[in-house]
Write a structure and sequence with these properties.
The protein is an alpha/beta fold. It is 46% helix and 13% strand. The chain has a 5-stranded parallel β-sheet with strand order 3-2-1-4-5, sandwiched between helices.
């Protein structure tokens, strides 16, 4: 029997989102306001960072133009402070007993490594935007994940952004929107088991 497939985002699902804390911490070291720093980031570098067109090193070099006194050690500590495991991490083993688990995230591998490493034995595939040269909600990154799933399988996708769940639904996936309070976590296992019973 083909197991159901569970595809999970990282930010807002398995770990806290970088924003807004990351930008607040950077702004405290910057020569411009948080609003200006974030606006410049979105206009100049955001898409290129998440699709791997620039490296992490180039990102920090860009940040340094606004935060000349920021040390690399302090900058890295900001990432660690902002990317913390969420309660869903502790459920991975339970979910794995019922479903194959995959990760699909707009991120940098080095940044999410502390989150991914402890659960790696449970993961069938890991698709990170900066490695795939695509970011959600682009349809092609969902196609990329689809290639790694068994044909005609039940897919449950969890993400905290409606634009991403909408695209997943267009691919025929079932979706669950992750709320900030984490109420979604208790819904995953019943949904997976419900599919298993049908089969």
């Amino acid at each position: 029997m083909i197991k159901p497939q569970l595809v999970l985002d990282i930010g807002g699902v398995l770990a806290t989102n970088l924003s807004p804390l990351f930008w607040q911490l950077l702004a405290a070291e910057a020569i411009v306001s948080e609003e200006q720093l974030y606006s410049e980031y979105k206009q100049q570098i955001s898409e290129r960072l998440w699709t791997g067109q620039i490296t992490e090193k180039q990102f920090w070099r860009w940040i340094a133009e606004y935060t000349p006194n920021l040390t690399s050690a302090l900058a890295r500590s900001f990432i660690d402070r902002c990317l913390l495991p969420l309660p869903a991490i502790s459920e991975i083993g339970n979910w794995n007993a019922v479903a194959d688990i995959h990760v699909l995230s707009n991120h940098l591998p080095a940044w999410v490594e502390p989150i991914i490493t402890p659960i790696k034995p449970y993961l069938k595939s890991i698709t990170i935007s900066s490695e795939a040269a695509l970011q959600k909600p682009h349809p092609a990154i969902f196609d990329k994940v689809n290639e790694q799933l068994p044909p005609d399988s039940f897919v449950l996708f969890v993400d905290d952004h409606p634009k991403n769940t909408k695209q997943a639904a267009l691919h025929g996936w079932h979706t669950l929107l992750a709320d900030e309070d984490g109420r979604w976590v208790s819904q995953v296992l019943p949904l997976l088991k419900q599919y298993s019973k049908k089969k």
